[in-house]
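Objective 1b. Sequence-to-structure analysis of Coenzyme A biosynthesis bifunctional protein CoaBC.
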Amino acid sequence: MTRVVLIVAGGIAAYKAPDLVRKLIAVGCEVQVVTTPAAAAFCTELSLATVSGRPVRQSLLDAAEEGRVGHIEIADWAQLVLVAPATADIMARAAAGMANDLATTILLATRAPVLWAPAMNTNMWSHAATQANLALLRERGAAFVGPDRGELACGWIGEGRMIDPPIIAAAARALVDRQPHPELVTPTRRSWVGRKLLVTAGPTRAFLDPVRFISNASTGEMGFGIAAAAAASGAEVVLVAGPVALPTPAGVRRVDVETGAQMLDACERELAGEDIDLVAMVAAVADLVPAEPSPGKLDKDRVLASLSDMRWRAEVDILATLAARHRPRTRFLGFAAQTVDTPPGADAGERLGAELRRLGRAKLERKGCDALFVNRVGVPGVGFGSPTNAGFMIFAEDAEAVDAGPPQPKLALAEWMLAQLEARWWPSGGGS
């Protein structure tokens, strides 16, 4: 079994700690719980000891344990140290290298991987000090899962909610097993330090009336994966997200939009403010929008008739518009989701790939971008709604496309994409 030291800090989310212990045990972990003094206000030692099967440790100067130098013994015992909830306070103390209680002493002494599950008020999470501590801990090799967006105990709605225990346990298992997980931000090479990225993700909505809209099946996972991978590699990342329920990746600044017009405006504001090295247009923008959407809610019996009578217009082409305005100062990566029928014959795979590459090349030239990733949709294992994806990376200056290989988790594919872009455009690393 994997030996996990679970550090429970003093936040309201500590009440979830017993459930988290159970979830960790269920994925094959043996759990030693360590609490900060403040955690006792939200969760009792008895409940944690009962579910973990081990006495809870809290005191740095425990006479019963320090004969064996207990705090170092725990740090050496761990194969993973998990901090959940990770409050702003314990993140700040760990970033400063403090060792003024058992929890921070273990964090300073352990050689095991450290996984943080942040939980705090949304203003505390977005504060420059917390984000600086986050970046410093990540630079030193820490991994992060969450936080989530939602209603917080303080009444605010936004980022800062501790991500759910089953997700934390799965991310912990993935980190130990060195496997990708969609919510896990792992330390990677810091080759994107100094670079600035703008990423769009998710669908947009074309409103028929104030409550009805047309959209598509994009989940946003691919774009969020690119944002997470770039931030973990040291980039400064802004994520313009359509209406999806995914948590914001650690270290990423998020701007939420609904419509294509709002997405274009948000991107223009970001590009006008400062130099952006790369824009990754991953969002699936609605192609058609009503020219004159109904100002009031349509009655049910009028919806179908209204659809046939409604005048439509093409939505603004965000990628082509931005590329025409901001290249070559900024590089643009586009995405193309294509349906391709499987041809008959023994060489079906080769011909399918050739058709995907042809469609991708045509779209790259039409959009005027620097590179484009083309993938197939409508089949299991790739595209919308799938945890995995595959396809080809096409560059404007090169006739040959690069095959990403068999379907792989979208976060892993995002890391592959960034490596391809880095090798082609910034082989020496570092910011502009």
